Amino acid sequence: MSEDPKSGLGRRRPGLGRGLSALLDEVGPGLGEDSNAAVPGGGFRGQMVPISRIKPNAKQPRKRFDETAQGELIESVRRQGLLQPILVRPLDGGNFEIVAGERRWRAAQAAQLHDVPIVLRDLSDSEAFEISLVENIQRQDLSAIEEAEGYRRLTGEFGHKQEEVARLVGKSRSHIANLMRLLELPAAVQAMVDRGEIAMGHARALIGTDEPERLAKEIVEGGLNVRDAEVLVKGPGGKINSRRSGAAAQERDADLVELEAHIKDATGLLARLKFDGEGGQLTIRYRDLDQLDMLVARLTATNI
């Protein structure tokens, strides 16, 4: 399909779920991968522009770049040049904003390249962010918090429902909901997840606790695995959603606690069981209508 590079994609397809590989189908095989490997068949059908005209996207999902991996990419670019183009969209003044390929752009700067290959596409803010998020998730470059923030932006700023986001990134809706709930944790705990001091499993155990920062520090200082962290959280002062004293918390039946954990794992939502000897009450907390819709869908599924 021939087109003026400045004209965009020609026939526009729905942005949600289009993905990086679909956008680059016309350009050449393998160009959606953020590496500097040689392109099968030789070259690409992009264009060369001065690197000074390419600007990073301040709102791209990934905020951290592995220094070791980036150093290896810089050396590769110094030896071979930039073999894969950077996906960009137009800005005012003849400049371009990176949609995918910031690692390559950074490496090209460090290698002191003057011109770099680009693929130019006319993309909306939502489309550009979707592509950037999908690319980083596929390459597993995002921390759990970065991924959760990306989902929150898609649902909040761009108005996508959680099930739409799940289809976009190829994940389950419960995965989306569980990750977004990590953003309920204090900023200090989120930073510990970002730095790799605690894992996503640790962080999930801390959601809804009275003192998540204190518990997170105990997890790090004790070198606890996720199972040990869950035991810690269920101890005095750490019981999920409990505002009672440590002695009262200890009185809760262990079977009820375990059932609550199973319900939380199955729904991604906090659950509370009360048992009066014969019957009881189950309370499940949801934050918004998307979470309620997800819960109703699970409860009314035909395989239940």
Automatic annotation (TrEMBL):
The keyword DNA-binding applies. NCBIfam families: parB_part. Residues 1-42 are annotated as: Disordered. Residues 47-137 form the ParB-like N-terminal domain. Keywords: Chromosome partition, DNA-binding. Involved in chromosome partition. Localize to both poles of the predivisional cell following completion of DNA replication. Binds to the DNA origin of replication. InterPro entries: Chromosome_partition/occlusion, HTH_ParB/Spo0J, ParB/RepB/Spo0J, ParB_dimer_C, ParB_N. This is ParB/RepB/Spo0J family partition protein. SMART domains: ParB.
